[in-house]
Write a structure and sequence with these properties.
By secondary structure, this protein is an alpha/beta fold. It has 15 helices and 28 strands.
Length: 525
């Protein structure tokens, strides 16, 4: 079933029930949207786009931070037969321009946070963009843009007459760019439908569940996890903020049952509880049944600490890619909490293999590239046949991740293929070192990268963020790393912040640029 039809069904079945709640704790605001209002607003968006010349197949850029309008706009774009193009709100103006140009966007929908960036590139966007829509206060609306509320208010509530097909193109999602220039993954309506089914199968959401959405909605992970609630007409909360007390306050007051966190947010919650800044007795959390994490490798030590504090929680981790329509091609499973550390087994309706550079399967226990096949594999990289041929072979999606299979059939992620460090002829996987260092009680966050070495080719370099209130020096790190094989020990150590993107992934290209050639470090001989 098309996800646009699922929305219409929810509106018929649960018309006056709350579908979405937006909480903006910094401004003390709480706003709700019923399923019927959600459905009607999506119809009005579709009608407004069509009335302004947007045709089936046209691309519509969506550049918004999380807000109550985000999802109705997304569904409205789909309903008029256009393709939604959600962009990362951290993209600089040049990247926004590049993505919009590749998409040949015909319409551009944006919020107040992006006025300066859009103004900077508008003369060049005008080559293809014919309609600008501004979602924000009218007193700051650029003169060239239509006001969102006025534009849709003039449109009828009933659905458009555009016929959609499950095999048709639906959305263009750009990769995060953590390994290079963002590429556009083209997803079909069938991809989106599959994401709903797979997420619900994995986490068993019912109509009574309430999902807390904190990560950015432009990212497939956030939206496709919400899809598990959406397919059964269950409500969700969009929280604008990541402060630990805001998260627990929302879970308590909205009676949230399912929360998807990123590693840094889970760590922040644990630190706040440990320091006494958060007191669990102040919140009603008994109904919170599932905490799951994805988008990056998860330190097993983190989950062990989490389950000490929340022993009744189900836990799951999900592995996915934009090119696989988000999370779910591999997942641990709430029944496999004893295997924390593994990314799991093939998700519902997915299969996998681990292969060498010649595409031959490797023996169990040996590292190789993880490849997956299933209903979420993207159609292609948009207008990039060469990259598509390198990423998809005979229906298999090459993930670019190095993994191994254990004797129980669980997949363990070792590292990104592009991040492997070759030092003195040995392959070193940064994630293994990061996991090791995360066990140090004074380390809050850590990233390991390879830096050039004349003698060894590359050397492992650790960037360490120390927990607040603690001190740490090189001698303590050296002693802690004694149990590692010598070639895996970090040769350089920097004490600094660890940059992460909005989905929690370490921005290693930034670190390589920052520390290339730097001598301001501790070097281990």
């Amino acid at each position: 079933m098309l996800i646009t039809e699922i929305l219409a069904r929810n509106a018929r079945m649960y018309a006056d029930e709350i579908a979405l709640i937006e909480r903006d704790p910094a401004h003390g605001k709480r706003t709700t949207l019923t399923w019927q209002a959600f459905d009607r607003q999506a119809n009005q968006v579709a009608r407004a786009l069509m009335a302004n010349g947007i045709l089936p197949g046209d691309r519509v850029v969506q550049l918004l931070t999380n807000c109550l309008e985000w999802l109705p706009i997304y569904f409205g774009i789909l309903r008029c037969g256009a393709m939604a193009v959600p962009l990362n709100f951290r993209f600089v103006a040049a990247t926004i321009e590049n993505c919009s140009t590749l998409a040949e966007a015909k319409a551009f929908i944006f919020g107040p946070e992006f006025i300066d960036r859009v103004n900077e590139i508008k003369p060049r966007l005008d080559r293809t963009v014919r309609l600008y829509i501004f979602v924000g206060p009218d007193d700051v609306r650029p003169a060239y843009a239509h006001g969102y509320e006025k534009l849709i208010r003039e449109q009828p509530f009933h659905a458009s007459e555009v016929n959609l097909d499950l095999s048709g193109d639906a959305a263009l999602y750009f990769t995060s760019g953590t390994t290079g220039t963002p590429k556009g993954a083209l997803l079909t309506h069938r991809n989106l439908e599959a994401a709903c089914i797979i997420e619900n199968h994995h986490h068993r959401q019912s109509h009574d569940d309430n999902f807390l959405c904190i990560p950015p909605l432009y990212h497939t992970g956030a939206k496709m996890h919400w899809f598990g609630n959406f397919i059964v007409g269950a409500k969700a909360v969009i929280l604008k903020g990541i402060e630990p007390h805001w998260i627990l306050e929302t879970v308590s007051q909205e009676q949230v049952t399912v929360v998807w966190l990123l590693v840094p947010w889970a760590m922040d919650i644990l630190f706040a509880i440990e320091s006494g800044d958060l007191k669990l007795r102040d919140y009603k959390l008994d109904q919170w049944r599932l905490m799951h994490i994805g988008a990056q490798p998860v330190p097993p030590s983190l989950i062990k600490e989490w389950l000490k504090i929340f022993p009744h929680h189900q836990y799951d981790t999900n592995y996915g890619l934009t090119e696989a329509t988000g999370p779910g091609c591999i997942h641990l499973g709430i029944e496999n909490i004893h295997k924390v550390g593994a990314i799991g087994k093939p998700g519902f309706d997915w299969e996998f293999n681990i292969v060498d550079d010649q595409f031959n399967p490797v023996p169990a226990g040996m590292p190789g590239e993880l490849i997956v096949k299933g209903p979420g594999v993207m159609k292609c990289y948009y207008r990039n046949a060469q990259a598509t041929s390198q990423a998809i072979r005979d229906g298999w999606l090459l993930t670019g991740d190095i993994a191994r299979l254990d004797t129980n059939g669980f997949i363990w992620l070792i590292d990104r293929k592009k991040d492997v460090i070759i030092t003195g002829g040995e392959n070193v996987y940064p994630v293994e070192i990061e996991d090791f260092l995360q066990h140090h009680p004074k380390i809050q966050d850590v990233a390991v990268i390879g830096l050039p070495s004349l003698r060894l080719g590359e050397i492992a370099t650790a960037i360490i963020k120390i927990k607040p209130g603690h001190t740490l020096d090189k001698e303590e790190i050296i002693r802690f790393c004694d149990s590692l094989p010598r070639y895996k020990r970090p040769r350089k150590i920097f004490f600094d912040e660890v940059p992460r993107n909005p989905t929690g992934k370490i921005e290693k290209p930034k670190l390589r640029i920052k520390y290339a050639g730097s001598r301001e470090s501790f070097q281990i001989k």
